[in-house]
Amino acid sequence: MPERPLLIVDPADWRAVHAALRARLFADGPAVFPVSDPGDAVPATAPAATALVIQTSGSTGRPKRVALGEAALRASAHATETALGGPGQWLVCLSPAFVAGSQQLVRSLLGGIEPVIGPLEGFDPAAFAASVAGMANGRRYSALVPAQLSRLVDDGERDPDLRAAVASLDAMLIGGQALPQAVAERARGLGYRIVRTYGSSETATGCVYDGRPVGATRLRTVDGVLEISGPTLAEGYLGDPDATAAAFHDEGGVRWFRTGDRAEISPDGTLRILGRADNVLISGGVKVSLDRVEAVVRELPGLSDAVVVRAPSERWGEVPVVVVAGEAAAPARLDEVRAHVGDVLGPAGRPDAIIVVATLPLLATGKPDRRALTALVAQR
Q1: Closest to 71 (Cα-Cα) out of 91, 48, 54, 96
Q2: Model's pTM, two decimal places?
């Protein structure tokens, strides 16, 4: 099989990543791997179709190296441009080590519009607003994770100038993890034009906007688990044919990606994600989705950043446990949390405890490190 060189680029140097992507998209350059620590056994080459390699966060297992072809990157960029109403300038506040960050650079290159680089580390709402003010006229976009949006909401409710700057963006794509409904409602109340996205590195970033597939993306569920097909799918996992075969399969000439997410698709085609298929415990013989418990807990005031993980129980086998940072929720709130979750999900979903930690351990993506939290809870 034909190969091409694989170029490792420090994602902290966004200009180097930008230049390398330009060379790959327009001059048949090497495949680009924006990673600060690639780990062991990094190949010198990648399959010839590869344009970009993204190392996944490893939030539920060991990291994988997702190989995305040039056609997938172009299809994703075109789908986004069409869904948002046309090309525009991107304010990039996500590291190009993540597919959402790199894809903003790809959209900028394909649209011929120089991106604006905001705070890539240590997100600061004031710096974000200042970056918005420095953007060119025309359509203006950004892409953020929910934690960043939450800070823009908190500060926007206190600062009318910051609120006006953020509200001037034509769209903010919000993805990477579940967006609490309360934060979404507050954001829209401030005039922020947010678009909830769903996707992954394997789909060249978000391929579903506000519950509807974009571009040529197709959705279906198999045994309750979401599968995706379309031109944005990755080539597979670099150097890992077994993982590729487990996640991607052909059926009737159509290639599908098994997401591992439980989902429902309404008759009108709207997608609803129910949680990870592997993030389910059995408590007293009843299946409980930890993602669903977490979403319900986050509906309560002061708990929008709570994380729910599993803990062993002599009586029930396993039980949900809430972990929060600081004093946002003292253990005294447990009765309130249990009552609310029980009303929505039934008795088996009620958390057994609230554990307060100084800070939540995070992955490089900014997502909670659930494996570390599960180990911490088991020790306690």
Answers
A1: 48
A2: 0.82
The strand pairing partners of 355, in sequence order, are 323
Hey, where are the domains in the chain?
3-271, 279-379
Query: Phi and psi at residue 272, in whole multiples of 5°?
Result: -130, 120
Other CB atoms within 10 Å distance of the CB of residue 185 = 11
39-51 pLDDT, tens digit per residue, is 778 899 999 999 9
Length of the chain: 380
pLDDT band at residue 59 using 50, 70 and 90 as cut-offs: very low
Structure tokens at 41: 């056994």
CA distances from 44 to 7, 47, 133 (A): 8, 11, 42
Q: Which helix (H) or strand (E) holds 183?
A: helix 181-189
| CATH (residue range 279-379) | 3.30.300.30
Locus of tokens 């939540």: 360
Taking the CA atoms of 242, 244, 246 and 249 in sequence, report the sign of the dihedral they define.
negative
CATH class of 3-271: alpha beta
Amino acid identity for residue 368 in this structure: P
DSSP letter for 322, please.
E
